[in-house]
Design a protein that fits this description.
- The structure holds three protein chains of three kinds.
- Chain A is of the alpha+beta class.
- Chain A has four domains: about 170 residues, no CATH class; about 240 residues, no CATH class; about 110 residues, no CATH class; about 110 residues, Tick-borne Encephalitis virus Glycoprotein, domain 1, CATH 2.60.98.
- Chain A has 22 helices and ten strands.
- In chain A, strands 2, 3, 4, 5, 6 and 7 form a six-stranded antiparallel sheet that branches. A four-stranded antiparallel sheet of chain A has the order 1-10-9-8, with no helix packed on it.
- In chain A, strand 2 and strand 3 form a beta hairpin.
- In chain A, helix 1 packs antiparallel against helix 2.
- The N and C termini of chain A lie far apart (about 60 Å).
- Chain B has a domain of about 60 residues.
- In chain B, helix 2 runs antiparallel to helix 3.
- By secondary structure, chain C is mainly α.
- Chain C has five helices and no strands.
- Classes of the chains: A alpha+beta, B mainly alpha, C mainly alpha.
- Chains in contact: A-B, A-C, B-C.
- At the A-C interface, helix 13, helix 14, strand 9 and helix 21 of A face helix 4 of C.
């Protein structure tokens, strides 16, 4: 099986190489009108098929690796390092992405899967797809070269075949870890598709803006995967790493957030191009940068350039990524310089106060945020270069620098939707801003007695309270603005159709799924902001506990009922059983655990979390008191964390709605037919 | 066994890629007509949006009238050219 | 016996209460400073949040931090002492010294410059007024426009 895997990868490389070469030759011939001994169309068709076939061969390789994991084939070095016999089945599957080589194979596989869909659906626009497919083949060649030459997943162990493997890192033995990496990779890899389309459209000097329409869903789906991937990672960090938080500003986390920020900017600014034909160069560079940031992120985390908790073996793979990044940049620059006149447009804005200018500012702020994260991630390297010593740039830096930018972004989220395209009348602004403004102000006042004290920023070094206060107030205003937007739109539909307001609002959303789905995404993001702000009010308590001993944290009393230990083939475990009381009543029982995995001898905490809408009571088993053998229990009271996960679900729903086709398109088609057959109109109207 | 699987994979891929195909999808450049139809859709969408936002009270009357006139003019030009090209369907003009 | 032990606990509780009262500030400083430094064991975690079982450094470092606070050092003195001992990477974010100022200044500068640039761009792109376009009034054009209006109404 390992031989079959290696061979499949080799075939996949050959196929992708052929796709790239034949595709490029065919496109060149078609562009110049010169013919070879085979018609360029036929050549292009073979290239496309090679691309499709490369998906199957890469899939065979991925299957071979998973098969090796399931059959405990420890002759494969990768399987020895990342799996063992006692590992549960689901995690054997996860072995595919738990190490360097496997995750690169996964990357190559997902890339070819995206390519497969793109190549199969080539009838959308044969020529544009041919360009995109060829560019994608170029990216595939790089990743397949990596897994064929630099990081081979099927290398065999030297010497005798071991009886058992080293096992999977226990931190990764958690259900989310089975979904989080593929999601994140789907996000990273997915940006290759809009990138390929953009580069292709620029190369062929594609007339019009239809390519944006074609790539829109790709971009949204990719964005959704990346979002879900990032948040699953947060949830995993929160539930597994057991330090009471979900975001540590680690370089790997930063690496995932950078393309997310530029990708978000891209999703917004393409609307300017679709609607107004503006910002063409900007958009092209936005998607170029997004793709390059995805590659840069991989480079940062795998080359050992910056230190990170995410343990990927540091290796020479970094050089490969450097070279690839330089090539990509060179190709982008070259294509842009050659065809930049194609992107020339006349930019005109009717008014300073318009949706267009709000998009400009939104883009700026998203990019400033991205720059800040990049800057913070790379500053240690810069510092070493300039002043000879490394420094750490971690949470305190981002809390001070990135949080204000985030708050500003929240502000724009509220304003943007209230502005109309082209220009907005002052009267309407006044009218539309009053209600959110009042609600925001009321909330700002109302939360002060609840313990949100903005003035702490002046009296102490602590800024959290101040930002939380602003965020809560602004979140209230933005949510009001979003609902007002639905309400206003619903009213218009209601006047027209006479349905009730709720039906009208549903109708409204279905008629412009992208806009109103987008608003729902905004709503989700605001909820996430609220959840994150809760951080400012975290409390914690650590104590060694004997039977019947208890302590208080916030409204809860935590009492130790029992503690014990147990063991099974995969791990040994110590745990405590805690009763949680609130106001004298038993609320729940928590059982935090500490596991030591047999294969790796690595400890891992299993967090016990009692989550409510108001706060999470988050308890970990921090270890044993060496003197008494009693458990050391650390408890956190983390307010509002649940809202982050709720916000994520709302965001997913919103993106789903935005992905759905518009009803208005159907109506338009109906109207179009109506011109031909007037009697259909009457029927259609009656049904409205 | 492995050799057989590898051989099958290679042969399968080879035949799939180079199997002679009669009806190859032609790569044509976008015609002027297609471009104009796309353009019309965009302009129509903009007009619908404009109408909608006017109804929900985001524009003053005179701004609305001016912008609608601009968009309608542009749409009218586009539609007129589409109709000209459609009536001339036997000799489609390439961009 | 139990009663007795409970009685014995009482003075302890009182003492504890007094100590914690006095140490409310110390506790906050401990927490604050603990968040401003990193654990040096290579886990890349914030010192006070480092939760390795058997971490070789964090317990000792936290002990040092407690001692430093108890000895009455100012926050800055504590941070500098730690930096002296463990090197600059122990600080979770660079201090405002020498080149490190750049780390703090650049992002806001970029944002402000960007904002100014965007403002100028918007001003440059902006049309002064929306002119009412000239409308052709030949019957074909009028009819076409009427049709478009009909097709695009809500």
């Amino acid at each position: 099986m390992p031989a079959f895997g290696s061979f499949s990868l080799l075939i996949a490389l050959v196929l992708s190489g052929y796709n790239l070469l034949a595709g490029a030759v065919a496109l060149r011939q078609l562009a110049t009108g010169r013919r070879g001994w085979i018609s360029p169309e036929k050549l292009a068709e073979t290239a496309r098929r090679a691309g499709i076939a490369s998906f199957f061969t890469t899939a065979c390789a991925a299957f071979a690796l998973v098969w090796a994991a399931f059959t405990n084939d420890f002759s494969v070095a990768y399987i020895t390092e990342h799996s063992n016999r006692a590992l549960p089945a689901a995690y054997k599957f996860a072995a595919l992405w738990s190490g360097q080589e496997g995750s690169l194979l996964l990357w190559a596989f997902l890339l070819s899967a995206y390519g497969f869909v793109l190549r199969v659906r080539h009838k959308v626009d044969v020529k544009l797809t041919a360009y995109a497919s060829t560019i994608l083949a170029g990216i595939q060649v790089f990743f397949l070269l990596l897994v064929n030459v630099a990081a081979t997943p099927f290398s065999l162990v030297t010497g005798a075949i071991p009886a058992d493997g080293n096992g999977l890192n226990p931190l990764l033995q958690y259900p989310e870890m089975v979904i989080h990496p593929p999601m994140l990779y789907l996000g990273y890899v997915g940006f290759s598709v809009p990138f390929a389309f953009a580069l292709g459209a620029l190369m062929m000097r594609y007339p019009g803006e239809k390519w944006i329409h074609i790539t829109r869903r790709w971009t949204m789906v990719t964005w959704l995967f990346l979002t879900v991937g990032i948040f699953l990672g947060m949830h995993w960090a929160y539930s597994v790493l057991g330090w009471g938080g979900y975001w540590g500003w680690d370089p790997v986390e930063n690496a995932s957030v950078m393309p997310w920020l530029t990708g978000t900017a891209f999703l917004h600014s393409v609307m300017m191009q679709e609607k107004r034909g503006m910002m063409k160069s900007w958009n092209v560079w936005l998607i170029f940068s997004t793709f390059m940031l995805a590659i840069l992120g991989t480079l940062l985390t795998r080359s050992g350039l910056v230190s990170s908790v995410h343990a990927f073996a540091q290796s020479a793979i970094g050089t490969w990524f450097w070279v690839f990044l330089v090539i990509v940049l060179a190709v982008c620059l070259f294509t842009y310089v050659l065809n930049r006149d194609h992107l020339k447009t006349e930019h005109k804005l009717e008014s300073l106060v318009s949706r267009e200018s709000s998009f400009l500012f939104n883009n700026l702020v998203l990019l400033a945020a991205c720059f800040t994260v990049l800057w913070g991630t790379l500053f240690p390297v810069l510092s070493e270069y300039v002043q000879g010593n490394r420094v750490t740039v971690s949470a305190p830096f981002y809390n001070r620098v990135a949080v204000p930018i985030g708050v500003f972004l929240l502000f724009l989220t509220g304003i943007g939707p209230l502005l109309a395209w082209r220009s907005t009348s002052m009267r309407s602004i006044r009218k539309n801003f009053v209600l959110p403004g009042i609600v925001g102000l009321l909330v700002a006042i109302a939360i002060i007695p609840l313990g949100v004290h903005p003035w702490t920023i002046f009296t102490t070094d602590e800024q959290g309270g101040f930002y939380a206060w602003i965020t809560f107030a602004m979140a209230a205003a933005v949510i009001t603005a979003i609902f007002a937007e639905f309400w206003r739109g619903g009213k218009v539909i209601q006047q027209k159709s006479g349905q009730n307001l709720l039906t009208s609002m549903v109708q409204l959303t279905r008629r412009n799924t992208r806009r109103y789905g987008g608003y729902i995404v905004h709503f989700g993001i605001v909820l996430i902001f609220i959840g994150i702000s809760g951080q400012a009010f975290n409390q914690s308590h650590e104590q060694t506990m004997n039977y019947k001993q208890s302590f208080m944290l916030g409204p809860y009393t935590i009492e130790c009922l029992d503690y014990s230990q147990d063991s099974n083939p995969n791990y040994d475990t110590e745990f405590a059983l805690l009763n949680v009381y609130r106001g004298g009543h038993l609320v729940t029982q928590l059982s935090p655990e500490l596991r030591v995995y047999a294969a790796s001898q690595q400890p891992s905490t299993i967090v016990a979390n009692h989550s409510t809408l108001a706060w999470d009571l988050y308890v970990i088993y921090a270890g044993k008191d060496p003197g008494t053998g009693q458990p050391v229990i650390k408890a956190f009271l983390n307010p509002l964390v649940a809202w982050i996960w709720i916000g994520l679900i709302v965001t997913i729903i919103g993106t789903g709605i935005a992905l759905a086709p518009n009803l208005s398109a159907a109506i338009a088609a109906q109207r179009h037919r109506a011109v031909v057959a007037p009697e259909v109109v009457a029927a259609g109207k009656a049904g409205d | 066994m492995t050799t057989l699987a590898c051989g099958l994979l290679m042969i399968g891929a080879f035949f799939y890629v180079f199997w002679p195909e009669r009806n190859v999808e032609a790569q044509h450049s976008k015609t002027r007509l297609e471009y104009l139809r796309e353009r019309r859709e965009v302009l129509y969408d903009n007009l619908r949006d404009l109408n909608f936002e006017y109804r929900s009270g985001k524009y003053p009357e005179e701004d609305y009238a001016a912008q609608r006139a601009t968009l309608e003019n542009e749409a009218a030009e586009t539609v007129a050219e589409i109709e000209l090209l459609e009536s001339d369907a036997f000799a489609p003009q390439h961009s | 016996m139990r009663r007795l032990s409970r009685l014995a606990l009482l003075p302890l509780l009182v003492v504890l209460g007094v100590v914690t009262l006095g140490s409310a500030d110390t506790e906050a400083r401990y927490n604050d400073l603990g968040h401003k430094m990193m654990c040096v064991c290579g886990c890349s975690e914030i010192l006070i949040e480092c939760n390795h079982v058997g971490c070789p450094d964090s317990d000792r470092m936290l002990g040092e931090l407690k001692a430093a606070i108890a000895s009455g050092d100012t926050n800055d003195a504590v941070l500098e002492a730690f930096q002296e001992k463990y090197g600059p990477t122990v600080l979770a974010a660079p201090l405002l010294t020498r080149f490190n100022i750049v780390a703090w200044v650049v992002p806001p500068t970029v944002l402000v410059l960007g904002l100014a640039g965007t403002f100028m761009l918007v001003k440059k792109w902006r049309l002064r007024t929306v002119a009412m376009p000239a409308v052709a009034d030949d019957p074909a054009s009028v009819e076409l426009r009427a049709r478009i209006r009909k097709e695009t109404e809500l």
